[in-house]
Amino acid sequence: MPRKLKPRKYGTATAESMSNAVDLVLNQNYSVRQAAVCCNVKYPTLQRYVKKKRSNLEGNIRMEPNYYHRQLFKDEHEE
After folding, report:
1. Where along the sequence do coiled-coil regions lie (predicted)?
2. Cβ distance 15 to 70 under 8 Å?
3. What residue ranges do the domains of the chain occupy?
């Protein structure tokens, strides 16, 4: 009898919660782990976004995962 695998959860954090968590770390002096717990995001992901934001303070950073580089077909063909 085969075992049942748990489905993987990729990209569970919303852009809003991720930007709130990054704001907590950069502006309100929370640690990365504290902000991750408060905003319900995973701390390694939050650490990566904080690093991006620190290196590019004035630029706009997308706070959501980019899955388009792994997409095999165009959006019209996916449906």
Report:
1. none
2. no
3. 29-56
Going from the C-alpha of 5 to that of each of 13, 36, 48, 70, the distances in angstroms are: 22, 26, 28, 23
Listed residue (36, 56, 55, 38) closest to 46, CA to CA: 36
Residues 12-71: tens digit of each pLDDT = 788 899 999 999 999 999 999 999 999 999 999 999 999 999 998 777 888 877 767 777
Cβ-defined contacts of 47-52 (< 8 Å, 24+)? 49/18, 49/21, 49/22, 50/22, 50/25, 50/26
Burial class (CB in 10 A: 0-12, 13-18, 19+), 34: middle
- pTM for the model: 0.74
Give the residue carrying structure tokens 């095999």: 72
